Amino acid sequence: MKFIIQRKKMIPHQLRFWENCDQHQISLLIGGYGSGKTWIGAMRSIYLSFINAPLPGMYVSPTHGMAQKTIILTLKEMMNRAEMDYTFNQNKGEFHIHNWNGMIYIGSGDHPSSLRGMNLAWAGIDEPFIQSKEVFDQIMARVRHPEAEKREVFLTGTPESLNFGYQLTRRDDLDMGVVVGSTLDNPYLPREYIQSLLTAYSPEQIDAYLHGKFVNLTQGRVYYSFDREKHMMKRETDGWEIGAGIDFNVDQLSACIFAHTKKEIAVIGEIRLKNAGTWDLAEAIKKKYPGIRVYPDATGSARKTSASLSDHDILRQSGFQVMTRRANPRVRDRVNSVNRMLRKELITFANCPTLIMDMEMNVWRNNDLDKRDPEQTHMSDALGYACHFLMPVIKHKATKHIW
Asked: In which residue ranges of the chain is CATH 3.30.420.280 found?
C-alpha cells in the first residue's frame, strides 16, 4: 500500500512546520487550542516511522492519561482512515505498523527517568510547555541511533507557561526551526467552538490559547505592556544618538545598546558577559561604539575595597560619557518609565534575545522584582536605568551638586 502525505490539505502553519522538520534537527510548532498541532505531530510520527523503519521512535505526552485522549486517539484515527495494518499494545504503549515494520513508542513526561536507556531514531514531545526540561534533555540524549535515516526531534504545543520550551526559542546554539499557528487559521473548526473560546478568555489568554503567543499569564507581570507584534522590529536609526544602559552584576554584566531621539528609543543590540569585569564590558562596547554616552547603575560610582577605581571610573577611562544620578530610581519608577514607552509605542527591540525574555518573563514577588532566576532581570534593569534617565515618568527638578 501507499501512504501519501497530502501537503495541499495542510493548514499553512502545518506546512511550514513540516518543511522545518525536513530542514532542521529540531522543530517547534507553537499553536493555540485546535490549531492542528496534535494532528500534524501524529502525521510526522507515522512518516518518521516509515523512513526509519524498523528503528523505533517515541512521541512523549505529559501523562499517560493525556496520551490516551490526544496522541494515541489521533494516531489510531489516522491509521484507521488510511486502512493501515497496525497493532497497539496498551500495556507497553507501542504502535507496530506492519505495513513497513515501523515502531512508535508512546512516552510519558511525568516520569522522565522512564525515558532513559533507549536508542531512538526520532522523537516528538507533545505540549512541552507543561513538561519539565528533563524530558527534553532525556529525549535529546536518546535520539542517537547510528542507523537512522532521519534523526529528528519535534515539539508541538500551546504556550501554557514560559518554561524551558520558551527558552528554547531564544537559543542560538540549536539547529531549530520555530513556527507559530493560530486557532483562527484552522478552517476545519466549527465557528461556535472558536466563538466560545473568544468569549471565555481574557485578551492575554486569547493571545496564548488561540494565537499561540508567548504570554506570561502569571499574576503580576512586570512589563505588562510588551507586545511582540507591536514592539519587535528593526528601525531606521540614521542620525539617532547611540547609548547603552548598563547593569553591574558579578555573573551577568549586561549592556543594552540603543539608538534614541528626544522621544523614542530603538534597542539595537545587547552585550552580556559572564565571569568578567567592568574593563571587559567597556572593551566589548568600545569595539563597536566608542565614546558613546552610557547610563549605568548608580551604585557603580562607589569604589570597591578590592579596587582603586569604581565601575564608573573605568567607564570614563575607557572614553565613555557616564550619565547617572547620585542614586538609582526606585524600581517601580524605572519600570513605569519602560512601560510608559511600551504603551505609547515609543520603543522597539531588535537583536536582543535576553532583553526580550525579560520583557516577557519578569514578574513581581513580594512587591519587588522576582530575582530567583539568576539569568533574568539584568538586561531589563540596564534598559530601565537609561529609560528613566532620558524619559522619566516623573520629571526631576534640576539641582546643582558640588562634587
From this structure: 228-390
pTM of structure: 0.66
Contact criterion met (CB below 8 Å) for 242 and 257: yes
Query: Which residue spans of the chain are classified as CATH 3.40.50.300?
Result: 7-209
- Residue with C-alpha cell 489516522? 78
Grid coordinates belonging to 231: 514592539
Pairing of strands 241-247, 176-181: unpaired
Mean pLDDT of 198-215: 84
Model confidence over 348-396: pLDDT tens digits? 999 999 999 999 989 888 768 888 888 889 999 999 999 999 998 754 3
pLDDT digits (tens, 9 = 90+) for 109-129: 988 888 888 899 999 999 998
Confidence of residue 169 (pLDDT cuts 50, 70, 90): confident
Task: Determine the Cα–Cα distance for residues 28 and 14; give it in Å rounded to an integer.
Answer: 11
Contact 7, 33 (CB under 8 A): no
Q: Which CATH number fits domain 7-209: 3.40.50.300, 3.40.30.10, 3.40.50.2300, 3.30.499.10?
A: 3.40.50.300
Tell me the CA end-to-end span of the chain in Å, nearest whole number.
86
Following CA atoms 22, 28, 32, 36 in sequence, which dihedral angle do they give, to the nearest 10 degrees?
A: 30
281 vs 252, residue with greater confidence: 281
Compute CA 89 distance to the chain's CA centroid, rounded to the nearest angstrom. 36
What CATH number should be reported for the domain whose range is 228-390?
Answer: 3.30.420.280
Looking at residue 162, its pLDDT comes to 76
In Å, how far from its chain's centre is CA 370? Answer: 18
The partner residues of 108 in beta bridges, in order of sequence, read: 61
Beta-strand pair 293-296/364-365: unpaired
Quick one: which of 63, 61, 91 has its CA closest to 74? 61
CA pair distance 335, 206, nearest whole angstrom: 25
